[in-house]
Records
---
Amino acid sequence: MSDETYGREDAAQDAEACAEALESLDRIALDELSFSDSAVDAQDEVHEDTEDEGSDAKDAPDEAEEDDSEADDQPESDTGEETVLLNSLPAEDSLTRELPGLGSAPAVDETIAMGDIPLPSVPSAREAEVRHRKMSPKRRNLMVAGVVAVALVAGGAGYAAWNGYQQEQAAAAAANAHTMMSVQIGVHAAGLDCSTGSKIPVQVSGQDADGSSVSETLYVDEHGRGIKLLPGDYTLSIAASPIAADGTVYTVPTTKTQVTVKSDGQDLSAQATFKLKVPSADTVTDDQIDAAAKYAEEGGASSAAAAKVLQQAATARRDAAVNAVSAQKAQASRDADARHKATDLYQLDIPVEWYGKVATWQNGSTLCIYLGDDANTPLVTLVAVREGESFTPDEGDTVLGAANLGNGYTVYASGPVYPYVVPQTINGRTQNPVSTYPMDTAIELVELTTGNRYTYSQIKNVLVGKDGKADGATKLETDYLAQILLPSIKAQD
């Protein structure tokens, strides 16, 4: 059997396969389309019957001549359907027609032959309408089935693209789950510079995206940067204090916070912020310094030697603070001893505000507190009086207060009302002034007897004024002495 024979058989088999496929597609349900086509075909048959009756007699001779000539020149069609589509068209609607204005010129064929397959020309509106009416429902269904098949193929391609995208996303998520992510937390540590001191140790515990448990210590600088973790859920806390270059050791916060790491460069400061306060240096313990030095050596400092230097700085700073506090306490004790005064009946403490600015003299149960080295300028004189006896102050003095000792004696405090006397003396007034005072002395006397609550000019212009009344000035001084001096007067043990 020749190759040509084999080729014909293969072509026949291919044609049968195509026909079966088209018949299969033809069975696709197109209810709406079939209904519409049936209505159109019914109307077309009625319309065509009417037109054909009127036109058959008129066009019969021409159609006969054209049919005879065309039948001689063209091969027979394989299917009756194709013959109907082409030969049943009116002459004016045929694919081969006379050009307007040429009369009896030969007709011009608008198709271009390419082998045995003609390329169709663009149909007119009339031709398109006629073709649609003449096309069988089966053929239209086949065309729609082809469109549906193309849509299905396109949909399959879209699904494949979407599925590929989903797979890429899943692969990216899986890759991220095994990629270390840099995160930032919030920290506040006054005066800390991790380039010269040690970093802050952060205790991290939790579970990464793979379900593996995590428990490790990581280190951040003063800006909260330095932590790298796999995506997951973690609990963060401060493990120990860092050590600043000057030896500062911080109070470690006890708070813990939970975070979720999702992406690289994530800022967690809104969820995790730690404040490390600076305590009084003398309160820092050896245990705090040792813990800070341990973490500095394990990763907080550039080297073990650097960690050792920081530990020494912290110890020296703490020891210096302890010594300073001890010295202050010793001085305060000496000052307290110096301020403490005693007679045979009572004891008291010189007010702190007066200490170093006054001196005292005493005679039995009488104690006088005067300004500086001037014994002639007393601030207050204290006298113990047995209950039932009266007390009269010296000339020019006023009783400024009294303290009952509870042992049958009362201590009276008396002296000049300096907020009243001094402005009068400076102004040259003569209402029983004790003496005259230089301005700096006058100001100091007013400050000591009023506790600096008013300036000299306020006392002069407001409390005393031009009317010379002393009630406001007297009350000011008595109230102040009642606060700072009288409470300390106690009976002698």
---
Amino acid sequence: MMTPPTLTMVSSHSPAPCWIPSQQHLDARAEQGKGHLLFLWSTQLREAAKTFCAQPDEERPLIPLIDAQTMLSDTIRRCHERFIIHISKHSDAYSKSCDYTEFIKTVQAIAGNALQSSDYASACGNLRLCIHEVHALLLSSENDDGSEPLLTIMDDLAMRVRCYMENVAEFADSPTAGKALNTIAQAANDKDMRQYEPLNSMLLISSALAFAQYDDKRMWAYDVIDNAITRNLEYSFNEESEESDEDDEDEDNEDTSEVDDETDFISDESLHVLQLFTLMNAYDLYVLSDDDAGREQLLSEYSESMALTLMNAANMIHEGHLRSAYMLAQGFLLSSRDMEDVDIDARHNGLLPDLLPHGWHTIMECCAEGLNDVGLLANVYRYYILSCNDRSDTHYVSKLRNLLRIYGGLSADEWHDVADGLARDYARNIIDRIKYQPEMTTKGGTQRHSGWRNPAYEKLIVDERLSDAALTYCVMVDYLLAIPFFGLGERSSISA
């Protein structure tokens, strides 16, 4: 792996460049992925799975499926019989709650027994049953104030099943592994699961990634991910799909939850989650399988996907292709309707948590720093100042000044002229904010909210004593509100 050059263009008193935590994060992720930069798989899953394995002489017999069904149905029946109705003392309102302790303990007992079993296909049948029953009880307890423990056990169960599938992929023979994975895929593709638990549904689908590194089992992974692509990216959820004419040669491994009869409604929010993680799963599948052709085809077919483009940019950075990553991020921004919204979406997408404070522009900033490219980095800093809405970005005024003076070779007078030109650009931006943004008011009044102000622009005016810009700014926003912030000294005709 090529390591980008260390940034030397910022002053020693400046904060550490954002490139450093990003690079450390990417390096750590690649290490977890055995050299691959992956997003839904890591060696930690396999390590967790190994803790489930029992010694051959200590493995407990698997609970028969029919017995597990009886155990769960009995506890669910008793659970419903023990509903408690709470009547409010001050009104006729009431709420119901239920004690789920016995049910949760039963699920934990059945799941724990299955997770230590080497009877992989049958164990996955029991795990699918547990997932189904927890979700069914969740749906029937929709208005129950005390259903939080069910949500917790569902999250825990989905994660433990995901880890267990690493054992299935490593130790089961190919036919058994195929049956086991198909069973978990059926649980993930349950209509209600997809609608109300889309994150856990896709976590279970990511079990396919465990099979991608084994030549004799990779086909099962492709089957599951291809099916997810058909369901989530190509299928119209409001129309009944045509019957498939293809016959599955292996009926034992047929996914009985095919999309043929799927006419259920999937909410936009759930569909977004399903689509996002389907693309991420597909990307990681191709990377784990060393399938460069499949990865490139995916990137080409879904070039408008932010998640895929961001994953691709991260890989470029990881491989040292910094200029290509910069151009990719810049191109994605330029092709968008609203640059600010796209940056916000990238910041909160979960792929690189807490590492993209400015979304795609953070990617560009990291690349420019790694390239030691003063021009590219100055452009990014200018954008941060232009789009500033709070005081967190005011330090970019000093960073831009140091960058252009120390490493760009500008004299003090030349920098002042640049700052004066920037101020005119920022003034036009303030006009656009006032003109196009909805009216912002304080509570109970009509006074303009300070959200129209630009603290970085204010700092530029103060630092460079730009009196004309200060006057224009005060008039545009709110003279009485803005004037206390300026103490411009001898160049200014305005005094605080």
